[in-house]
Amino acid sequence: MDVNASQMDYVLPNELVDGMITAGGKKSNVSIKNLLLRGFYSGAILGLATCLAITVGIQSGMPFLGSVLFPFGFASIVLFGMELVTGNFALLPMATWAGKSTWRATFRNWTWVWIGNFIGCALVALLISISLTSGWSVDPVAGGKGWPAIAAKIAAVNELNVVTKYQDLGSTGFFLAFLRGLIANWLVCLGVTMALVSKSVPGKLLACWLPITAFQTMGMEHIVVNMFLHTAGPLLGSGVSFGQVIIWNYIPVTLGNIVGGMVFIGMLFYSTHRTKMGNVLPTIHDEKLERELAAELGAR
């Protein structure tokens, strides 16, 4: 039986890339209000997911279990069509290269979504810090499995991933933060792109879950996750200043995330699957596919 590929639970790579380009063009015109609101949601849910991963890792004694549960935040962003700056690092350049956006619009999107992501993470960091310390009445304490131990772990990760791993190594540390940011967003954008290949919710969840678990397990650097960790850490008494966070983590990790998403996902997929040939895509217009891609990528 001849079944059109667009009617199956699978999006062909050239259909996927054309849909991403179209959605990217629409995203470049999303209002600042919606960029901030959708960015806020994404930052907040990733902050909660990060806290969950740390909590489960400490309470179970198996950090990998926390990494396995962590991707629920990313999955909700994909399903709800919210704005995550790291995903946009791949998507908006594709639309720009195809002539459906501009670099000015691209940087506008990146800037406002970055800010929205940060606001969401910062609010969750504040709320979680108050919760873990019972309103600042209990100090973080390493060891054990209670809230003080979780608070101590967050503070320790903040110091480790700013001072020990990067600042203490100088220029080498800056490069390592950039490199780990590159690898992280390569995997994150791979997960989001894989989710778009399926039209079913179970297919999307399974596809995005594995790359996200991989980046978390490998200890790579994702700027939005770091927004939570490196805001909560100082609030919980890590002793790391926000200036140190910006120079030794936020700047190199953001740059690495840009390269990882734009080059290793956006440029690669665009170069190999983007075509101007009119007979490549099915002649039957798949409105459902177009609407689905647009919704998943927040282009409403």
How is this structure best described in words?
Helix content is 74%, strand content 0%. With 300 residues, the chain is mainly α. The protein has a single domain (9-296), classed as Glycerol uptake facilitator protein. Helix 2 runs antiparallel to helix 4 (72-80) and helix 6 (103-132) packs parallel to helix 10 (223-235). Residues 277-282 have low confidence and may be disordered.
* CATH third-tier fold name: Glycerol uptake facilitator protein
Classified in CATH, the superfamily is Glycerol uptake facilitator protein
CATH architecture: Up-down Bundle
Mean pLDDT: 91
The CATH class label is: Mainly Alpha
Low-confidence stretches: 277-282
- Please give the count of helices: 12
Number of domains: 1
Compute the number of strand runs.
0
N-end to C-end Cα span: 36 Å
Helix content: over 70%
CA-atom Rg in angstroms: 20 Å
Instruction: Tell me the β content.
Output: under 5%
Order of helices and strands: HHHHHHHHHHHH
Would you summarize the structure shown here?
The protein is an all-alpha fold and 300 residues long. The protein has helices at residues 13-27, 32-60, 63-69, 72-80, 85-97, 103-132, 147-164, 171-197, 201-218, 223-235, 242-273, 287-296.
